[in-house]
Amino acid sequence: MADNHRAAPQDCLPDDYFHFVCLFKLAAILYMEFDQQGVPSDLDGAIALYRAALHLLPSNHSDRFMPLDNLAICFNRRFEQRSVLSDLDEAIELNRDALRFCPPSHSERFRPLNNIANSLRDRFRQRGILSDLDEAIKLGRDALLLCPTGHPDRSMSLNNLALSLRERFQQRGVSSDLDEAIESDRAALLLRPPGHIDRFTSLNNLALCLGTRFRQQGVPSDLDEAIELNLSALSLCPPGHPDRSMSLDNLAQSLRERFQQHGILSDLDKSIEFHRAALLLLPDDHSRRSSSLNNLALGLEDRFNQRGVPSDLDEAIKHNRAALLLRPHGHSDRPMSLNNLASDLKVRFKRRGVLSDLDEAIELHEAALHLRPHGHSDRPMSLYNLASSLLERFEQRGVPSDLDEAFRLFLQLSHLSNAASQIDLRAAKLWADSADIFNHDSALLAYKTALKFLDQRVALLSSSSRHFGVIREAVSSLATDAFSCSVRRGALTTAVELVEQGRAVFWTQLARFRSPLDRISLSGETGVALAEEFKRLSFRLRNAFDQSTENQSPEIRQLTTQWDDVVSRIRKLSDFSRFLLPPLFSDLQKAAEAGPVVIVNASRHSCDALIILSGQDPVHVPLDIAPIEVFELSSKFQSLSEQFGSSDHQRKLIGILRKLWEYIVHPIVKALEESEVRPGSRIWWCPTAEFTLLPLHAAGPYEKHRDNLSDIYISSYTPTLAALIRARQRVSQDVSPQHFVAIGQGNPDSGKKLSCIAPELEDVARRLVPIVSFTSLKDSDATVQGALDALNHNQWLHLACHGTPNRTQPFESSFAMRDGPLMIKDIIRSDWQNPEFAFLSACHTAVGDEKSPDELIHLAAAMQFSGFRSVIGSMWSVDDEVARQVVSTFYRHLVDGLGRLDCTRAAVALHKTMKSLRKKIPLEQQIVFVHTGV
């Protein structure tokens, strides 16, 4: 607290000024006593004296700055002690008044700027008004400009600005705020070298920011640096230092996080060691002791899961019991401790089979549920934990009341209205699985609830491919099992709605979630505001869910309420009543307007087909094949497709195609004929699960005088019904001339040379140059950026090159260009205008991740979901010379009688091409190309 003062100027009476000085010094003494002893009355007295001193000076007196500044500091300290918001408001107004006495040239102007910024940040944390945070950052930047390099208070200004920027990042998710916060913290740290009194603070703050960025972007170096910074901070807290236990816990948490990323057990061992050391420094009555016990127990649980040493689990249980004792009734963290102890007891029951552990776990989960009433964001977690434990006990003892109670708990999930977290989805999936197994009446409701949660969960994920793992884990067999359950209960239209809702969720997000936001912004100022608010809240919720802990429950509860409110307001806009809601059957049926769509489903419960017809109810075709047989058939075909070219492959291939015909396709053909779908008509296949990996279009008896499928109908595929509907809705623009680009790369950066690429492009040019605006890119021009740029100016694409699937990282599946791979993740970032048709003359462009076939992450799908209405791709390797023959013949059939290109003719053109080449090329090359789209 400064107490500088000058002689009284003429506008202030000498007695008043003397009295002012006395009061000012007495106030400073009281404040110092409060600072040392913490007696609240001393702070109140200092505030009263500073007020009295201030009243003795005229409003324009030059010395008013010091009492205003000091009085504001007192109000800030009292707010920190008592959390009375009026004190914070008073501090802000006093600092604004003090700023009047510090013109831009004043050497102390940075002080009130920093003080106002800090108070505004504190007020934001209390009231959540973003304008306070924005102003805090603006003032923080102004203060920093007044503290140039060499200024003694520059590090303080950098530190304050970083705190505000990190706070705003947590609210709005703008990565540049976090990056700037990190750079500011780095700069502050450089100004606080070893020995500086505030170095510990800067080390901690920078570690915290880097840890946040690691959780957002997943860059390992950020976490490694955070650990090094925490180690440095710990070195500044030798034994006896009051912050040593906190520093030990921070370091332990970072090490445990790195273990969870990389699985290095030494990190986990060190984390446990540091948590133990932190705990030893906290006496029994310390406010952080229960948290330290909890953290140590979590580390021991992780190590037990890795090594299976019983003593780790027993010790974790002991520490969880101790933490629970320190969190009596009324403690905010009691439900967490109840849950943690119950979970460990349940794990021990599974290992040792002692039923008393399971009984106690159920009692603890019941107590936790009681403390999480309806509306609590962690209630679904407690419902899941208690219900799953009751199911476990039912399996052990067979008491019907346990099963009934479990389903009573599960049913409560259907009433949740907030945006779903991962635990909500996991709970609903367990409900659906259990209801299906036990044939419970709630089975269909369970699947609907689980898929609703999946929809909400996907909406909160970014469209970045790094979130695909979360989607893949969430989806599993949910959609196909829901389809099977609906069919077995005769709810055929529901089966269509549910399977559509739960498949290709990554692509659905791009098509159904991103585009409407663009259109919302076109709905006037209200639409723009709602779109921005929705994006901001989605980002914050995504972060909260991904880092979900018990302590974040109030934040999650508040954010989900706000998110739901924004969604409700968007749905009140014209044409947005079903925003983020899955399509109804009445909408999905439009996919069959140009011909029937056949959904072929494989689930662990049954295999079925549904034929979707325009203006009729779906037709159910039971398939007389077990799910395991479909899996074996798919595996056998995948192995065979990697060996095409060997001497006996054709015999094996025909054997597989005959089984496809006998058990799957022929029953469907009979049903189509009964539904009066005439021979020569087009049909669309919409396969699920392992069926996506099988060539349904090529099925047949392969016997003389008997027709194969290709002799009866013209087959196309569609990944989802909505994808086909969207392709039909994107009506071709009347662009004259049509712009066509042929891209060929026979000499890629890596890979075998393709000798027929140049002749293939010449054949395409010969067919199309007279009727379209034709561009050709090849050799050194066929680069990644060259291809992307060309697609910004052309609606039609022929791409001839190597295709490389990546089964483990499907978003890195690619086309080989001269300078490297053109990947799926590059394609989905593009925003092409009115694309029409793509012929992908490359290998493996229509086959995706075998572990998640229903997500359809492959090159052909990427082109379709990027806007191409019609796509031709390949299911396995394509022979270079065969590709040239197919391409030349295809474009001859694609051009209509008036000499125009029409993408809706692509399937027929491909059908005619393969028919004409049937006797000239091997069977596997006759059936390798497939058509997707309109």
Automatic annotation (TrEMBL):
InterPro entries: CHAT_dom, Sel1-like, TPR-like_helical_dom_sf
Domain CHAT, chain residue ranges per copy: 657-916
Superkingdom classification of source: Eukaryota
Pfam family, one: Sel1
Annotated protein name in UniProt: CHAT domain-containing protein
Lineage: Eukaryota, Fungi, Dikarya, Basidiomycota, Agaricomycotina
